[in-house]
Every structure is written in C-alpha cells, then in structure tokens.
Design brief:
This protein is mostly helical. The protein is elongated, with a radius of gyration of 13 Å.
Length: 50
C-alpha cells in the first residue's frame, strides 16, 4: 500500500508503544500503538524504504 502512494508529498503518522501494563491502564488504543511498533521494527517496514 505504501509503495502505491504517488510520488508527491505524503505524510503518515504513527504512535508506537510497547503496550506495557502502564500504557494499557491509561490508553484504550494501546493495541493499535503496539501494532504500529511491530510494523515499524519489522523487515516489512524496511522493505518500504526508497
């Protein structure tokens, strides 16, 4: 999906988190943030780099 973006200006936002017990206690969206972290640290993320 990232590779299909046009060559113009694009912006993405992520808010990664490890999903610790502390973050789970205060953030209902911690699972999404954990997924962001997993993607950003994966080989799939590096494959999207130009």
């Amino acid at each position: 999906m990232l590779r299909d973006l046009p060559a113009d200006l694009n912006e993405g936002a992520v808010h990664p988190s490890l999903g610790s017990q502390d973050s789970q206690a205060v953030d209902e969206g911690w699972r999404v943030r954990r997924t962001d972290d997993e993607f950003l640290t994966s080989s799939n993320s590096r494959a999207c780099s130009p």
